[in-house]
Amino acid sequence: MKSQRSAAIILGLTACVALFVLSCHRVPYEEPDRAQPVAGVRMQDVLFFSTALGREMPYRVYLPADWPTGQKLPVVYLLHGAWTGFRDWSNYSHAAEYARHGVIFVMPEGDLSYYMNAAGAKRDRYEDYITKDLIADVESRFPVKSDREDRAIIGVSMGGFAAIEYALTRPDLFVFVGALSPAIDAPRRGFNIRYIDQWWRFRTIFGPMGSEERKARDPLELVQTANPQATPYIYMTSGDNEALLDPIQHFATRLKQRGFAFEFHIKPGGHDWGEWNEQVPGCFASLLQHLGVRVN
Q: Around Cβ 242, how many Cβ atoms within 10 Å?
């Protein structure tokens, strides 16, 4: 009887956590706007309707302030990490500086979705929202080129996970993928009572542990079957003092073993913008090279 009561309590608590997590999952993080103006760069916020999600979603754009009318530019999608929002890159990075070279940067809202079509929440089709709705809306509003060779994606942490996952499953979309401290092991994180909210959120997004749904979203599984010749160039980084270093190194080893085109850099620091901003110059230099953009 006692064990049954305990089980019922745990089940009830789990259900409450599940409801809380699912409700948070769909609400954009209200992040203060600290973006500073950059000479020669225009910033614009857009609100558009996503068919995949069935609601309006925001994104921010950096583009050159003065550019010849009718000339189309390469486009780079910048994905934020967990517990932040679409203003994250503009608040804490120097991405705007690179728009002056003739590149358009798009920063979408991703909530806590890992930018995936959630296995356990059929209305949360975040991958379709990014790869279909967002790209289509950007190409209809801004002078961006629409071919793979002029499109790239870069993410931090949760966003880095998504960038890697897209590289392996949608190689037709991007020529370059950057992943700063990617949460590469997220689908492999099991149950932990201390992080029960994360466990339930990951179960909702990726599917139950050991399921085919989960394996289909696991970069450490996908790297074994993806085609190295078709996959975009991967630029990956990590701080030397962050918890994700081991799984990221493990993933880099698999990339090397299978002959993917990639580079991997480690610099002092942890899992934050202090370290990521140390990695951004190298990442963006490689990005511009792969987009064929000349830096004067």
A: 17
